[in-house]
């Protein structure tokens, strides 16, 4: 089993390129790159999206239930949901390569897969821009799709630059509260150390609950005290609460700036939290929502 660490690509990332270079500056091949497989199983929505974006969507034969983008992937056989995936289901698809997000399958399943003759890559990704770039370059290199990887990096940098320009024109730093919801019975607030912290900061905002660590249950008193300017949800989460009207009826929301001004934002879950090839789009979209008065030059 290969754990795909990105340290070897740090220099390339600084130059926004997935092309590894020799000491004289010429491109070199990676000794552990592979012939492009014909039957891949990808586990993890971000992994599936990235492999597809590298131009290899037609080689993916099965995915997991978090692999909802692009829509074409939803029609493939599913090996289950992360945390409830069996090695047998993956191997039944006769893959010649299995690519798994490091948090998408239990260790015992990975151990079972490792015991077979099928190559297994476990891709590690953190909630940072650098980690996303490293992940793109790692897979682009291993799958011999460096040019496609460079294109993804270039688009990511363009989107981040546009978002940064928008933020630079902003006159405020709005407080944003991310709420993970699965109906009124399951609502948690994202704090420090979560994807929400990084996304909000990149978009020119700040967490409304900076002292909160990771995810914690939503507390009415704390919500009112935090007084967020914006409430941020996954689209599915907002829908589970009955839309904007449902959120505004939650205890405490009417006492916040977000509730009083109707500043409730919903974004696609994978786009917002995936830290994949569309990370720049996510940052740009969020910056546009929380800084509506700022303008940037046309792309």
Automatic annotation (TrEMBL):
Segments forming domain Fe/B12 periplasmic-binding = 39-294
Q: Which InterPro entries match?
A: ABC_Transporter_SBP (IPR050902), ABC_transptr_periplasmic_BD (IPR002491)
Cleavable signal peptide: 1-22
Give the residue spans that cross the bilayer.
none
> SUPFAM superfamilies per the record?
Helical backbone' metal receptor
Origin: domain of life: Bacteria
Pfam (any one): Peripla_BP_2
Look up keyword Iron-sulfur and say if it applies. Answer: no
> Which keywords does this chain's UniProt record carry?
Signal
Know the name of this protein? Iron complex transport system substrate-binding protein
In the record, what lineage is assigned to the organism producing the protein?
Bacteria, Pseudomonadati, Bacteroidota, Cytophagia, Cytophagales
